[in-house]
Amino acid sequence: MYTLTVQPRFSETDALGHLNNTTLPVWFEQARTPIFKLFVPTLAINDWNLILAKTEIEFVREIFYGHDVKIKTYIEHLGNSSFVVYQEVWQQQQLAAKGRATMVHFDHDTKKSMSIPDAIRKVLSEHLVEKK
After folding, report:
1. Where are the domains of the chain?
2. Helix segments in the chain, DSSP class H
3. Per-residue pLDDT of the chain (132 residues; tens, 9 = 90+)
4. What topology is assigned to 2-125 in CATH?
5. How far apart are CA 81 and CA 113, in angstroms?
6. CA 43, CA 46: separation in Å to the nearest integer?
7. Residue 83: in which H helix or E strand, if any?
8. How far is CA 18 from CA 47, 50, 96, in A?
């Protein structure tokens, strides 16, 4: 499991006084950075070999400004060229949201998926979690 602590910004709140729903996809992407570094250690855009195929977010409870958020990131499924990242948002020891992102190892020149290299597969498998 990878973890990231985020301090919600006032600008991320909405008229109802809690974090805006559009904030979570950005936080989830940020929390996937250690996974991105497995595929592109320098994070150089010209070397990027991942694409985002699907995302989903389930809002469990409100997230509020003024309290840190912990994002937990796991691998839920590991296929030949794709994998599913499962993420949870926790605030004050309570689950606030959960989401999934399907990522594909991709060759932008040929416009085709590529097998995940064994060395990366090994690291990803260390973060496997049973489906939640």
Report:
1. 2-125
2. 23-31, 33-39, 118-125
3. 999 999 998 898 888 778 888 999 999 999 999 999 999 999 999 999 999 999 999 999 999 999 999 999 999 999 999 999 999 999 999 999 999 999 999 999 999 999 999 999 999 999 999 766
4. Thiol Ester Dehydrase; Chain A (3.10.129)
5. 6
6. 9
7. strand 82-91
8. 37, 32, 12
